[in-house]
Amino acid sequence: MSVVTRFAPSPTGYLHIGGARTALFNWLFARHHGGTYLLRIEDTDKARSTDAAIAAIHDGLDWLGLGGDKPAISQSAQSERHQEVAHALIDAGAAYQCYLTVDELTAIREDSKKTGDAVRSPWRNRDPAEAPSDTPYVVRMKMPDSGSTTIADAVQGSVTVQNHVLDDMVVLRADGSPTYMLAVVVDDHDMGITHVIRGDDHLNNAFRQYMVYKGMGWDIPVFAHIPLIHGSDGAKLSKRHGALGVDAYRDMGFLPDAMFSYLLRLGWSHGDMDIIPRDEAIDLFDLSRIGKSPARFDSDKLRDVNAYFIKIMDDDALYELIAASIGNSANKQRRKIADYQAVAIVKGTRQNPS
């Protein structure tokens, strides 16, 4: 089996550290097995997705040397395919048309809180012809009421949930737009993804997405859910821990090889090796060495790794990097002065910029 991995960011902001590490692990796993590493921009949330964010993600990945092996796919461009699969699930008896009103759904959810059972709509066992004509509907998965589902996760090990806790999730909204739960499965299947390597905040999603694969009779990929990155204090990683966008580290003078090496060791290890060159990392990388506990981001350690790579850097290359950095700073300062002068002219003053 040829290995195919993917990195699928949502373009709602910059490429953050956690996303960059996920991309790195997918890239390394594909390279280690002589496979393919793909990119998908999950831009179905049009209200939050921006062209600037998409450009920033590509820019950050290219800087790290983690660009995709093929042009990136836009998830929003596959909406007709997502709708097609939703109706195929209905035909297969794995999903159904649900005509619940807002008030009816609210009442069912309140009952489910009391019983501890998942949301089940009465429309799962009713004929759609019973609904008034032209009544809008959503498409829900028909989750099993009994038994359990087990996923053999390549990082977390064997994980099991009882099926009665899985909601009859919506896969197609009343306006015909797909939900994330449907779109991600359809896209992964159509892209031929064999290994889904992502953060463990998606582990619960895996059980729901599993039902879509099963409903369509598709092969289920290997799941590998990586523990998230925390700050040095053990709290969820944030800007106060020094975690910024990848582009910010580049602008501060960090080298892509240093960032690559540091991210590799956030949650993955090989003996006592601390700094591992790219070629060697490809040879050594495997999912079994990813830890189950959250990694901790350490800004001081990142600076130490960067200092090491600066020391071993070719003199000419280092000179070019410094010159470019100085040039960028000078350009920014010139633009600042020009802006100040333009404002001064508008205000009718002749003050000199300080």
Attribute tags:
single chain, 354 residues, alpha/beta, three-stranded antiparallel beta sheet, 11 helices, 12 strands, elongated, disordered C terminus
Compact overview of the structure:
The protein has helices at 17-32, 51-64, 79-91, 102-115, 180-190, 203-216, 246-251, 256-264, 278-284, 299-311, 315-347, and strands spanning 4-7, 36-41, 73-74, 95-98, 138-141, 148-153, 157-162, 170-172, 195-199, 222-226, 229-230, 295-296.
Textual characterization of the structure:
This protein has 354 residues and is α/β, with parallel strands linked by helices. Helices cover 42% and strands 14% of the residues. The protein has eleven helices and twelve strands. The protein has helices spanning 17-32, 51-64, 79-91, 102-115, 180-190, 203-216, 246-251, 256-264, 278-284, 299-311, 315-347, and strands at 4-7, 36-41, 73-74, 95-98, 138-141, 148-153, 157-162, 170-172, 195-199, 222-226, 229-230, 295-296. The strands form five sheets. The chain has a three-stranded parallel sheet. Strands 4-5-8 form a three-stranded antiparallel sheet. Helix 1 links the parallel strand 1 (4-7) and strand 2 (36-41). It is elongated. The chain starts with a strand and ends in a 7-residue tail after the last helix. Mean pLDDT is 89; it is low at 340-354.
